[in-house]
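Help! Submission page says 'invalid entity' but I think these are all valid:
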Amino acid sequence: MRRVGLITDFGTRDPYVGAMKGVIASRTEAPIVDCTHEIAPFDVWEAAFYIRAMARWWPDGTIFTVVVDPGVGTPRRIVAVDSAGQIFLAPDNGVLTFVIGIAHSVENESLFLPDGSTTFHGRDRFAPVAAALANGLSIEQLGPRADDLVRLDYTAPAYDRRRVDGTIVAIDRFGNLITDIERSHIPFAAFALQAPSIARVSTTYSGEGPFLIIGSTGCVEISIAAASAATALKLKRGDRVTVVPA
Amino acid sequence: MRRVGLITDFGTRDPYVGAMKGVIASRTEAPIVDCTHEIAPFDVWEAAFYIRAMARWWPDGTIFTVVVDPGVGTPRRIVAVDSAGQIFLAPDNGVLTFVIGIAHSVENESLFLPDGSTTFHGRDRFAPVAAALANGLSIEQLGPRADDLVRLDYTAPAYDRRRVDGTIVAIDRFGNLITDIERSHIPFAAFALQAPSIARVSTTYSGEGPFLIIGSTGCVEISIAAASAATALKLKRGDRVTVVPA
Amino acid sequence: MRRVGLITDFGTRDPYVGAMKGVIASRTEAPIVDCTHEIAPFDVWEAAFYIRAMARWWPDGTIFTVVVDPGVGTPRRIVAVDSAGQIFLAPDNGVLTFVIGIAHSVENESLFLPDGSTTFHGRDRFAPVAAALANGLSIEQLGPRADDLVRLDYTAPAYDRRRVDGTIVAIDRFGNLITDIERSHIPFAAFALQAPSIARVSTTYSGEGPFLIIGSTGCVEISIAAASAATALKLKRGDRVTVVPA
């Protein structure tokens, strides 16, 4: 079964998501699923890491429609990427940095709404193309192959024998600080955070003070039980952190 | 295919939306779609403009169920309006100001939940009536024709040969100030905003300082790239604005 | 028709809800319904009262999947309760205090995702079990009968001939203060609130000043028309209130 999953920074207070869903529902019976509409406005980074953590849990045939698009109306491309049977439809602005697959540039204007706006491609371009894909259109029919997709300015962690340097890539609603340091890649058995110095490693969100925990993505997280580690430790997304042997 | 689209000011933290969905799901297999639950509490104006921008993108057979209802329990009517095959079920409080169609007053109490409350018609009246409509009930069976629906206290723009006076009717989450001045109705080719004075007209959300842009509804919007024009310009909904030849 | 209803404290900004939906959609065609993701983080009490007000409106065959789980990864049980044909899947932490039925402990690890995390049972345990239940698995197959479920530290109201002592159990987005005092149990015809002293009883959200109203759950609420009673009266959840004859 094909389905359309929506990932936007629109919120739901404004009529944008409702209009997109209407265009899709007008053109396909495929289910429309809200993944999120709460990506921070214009935050391509947040959307890219959202997709990295979320998309792999979905079945083949899901058409992820990603509208986090500060460059709407500029010559930025719209691309569709087939990643092992999942399709990602998105502006080419880095939001698909962690999606590996075959990309096509969406240029087949016959699929767009006629007389569309320059400001709301979510409704006028993404929605009808997503519906067409849900109805079975192949991505080859969208336009030519696209190479050199835009990528985030992001440095992957460096795993050294005596230290691992990584980055806080997300902060969740609980205030957990999520790094990109994968536990399975750390080349030493016991580890601690260097600065701020945190030695306790827990498997549950419990106990006193800050601790490290392997989160749901398999990466090191910095956490405080029932409180926001981000607030307490004054750390923010993008901050560099170092893990050392304990 | 019929479907029920929900438009409320309930938020989703409280059990109100969940209860409404349960009543609908108990009575029909028609899909239930969240349009929005984030209309500001009691804000009939916001809901009316939300509907104006959103509903036209949906197919026939959609039953929009609008519960923004500060007068719940008072003698205000509930009405159902058939607008070219879309049905709008709403309190008669102005929220359907921009919906044109044949209206019936919802008075057939056999459709309501028995022993319903005076405080939550969303669950006790709107939900079961929406489900009945989704199952094929015609609006004639809801009650008698209704005329003179309540309308918003709203003045449409005046398009003069040398100036157009309009209103900021909405502010979206990005801080864009959305007026009701339709580009296609402005009787001069080049235009500017009079006060605050804004001469730049853009087709994309880019460049320095405030600019005018034709937004997704075809109306003039005041915007700042990647920032809130509402905050920067200290303008608010309801403020009058004037467009003049450039 | 079976369906999965989601009740979480995850919000939708983070990838948690999207990942859960993906796991469910990978394993069942049953519809997935968002009840709420806006329970306050870790707030078991709020979730318990949410469920009390919301669940009874749903049909049999609904699988409510409740992930408000501050103790994730600790030895707290996961339980499934069959309550007259509705199934509640939840951590055993008090969130099902008001659900009466036959409980089983979820211990059949073959249903869980392999190599699951200790931090995100919503995705790794709740979601695949919910999908299995939606596909027809019986709760007997989840694990042994479970007794002595954890209950909230909550005192039900005392209905005396001359006074009723109760508790403010919820505050909704409109600022209504919702007590647990059921109108139908009050043993006197006319009633008033003792402190703060409120004598006016209304059937609609209208008029000047604070008033009492029988809300959608049949309980006494304290309200102010188009304003927040919680803010104006400086009352909070857990505060005790007394109703006396008027």
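Support: the input was valid. A stray whitespace character was the problem, and the output above is from the cleaned input. Chain A is about 15% helix and 30% strand.
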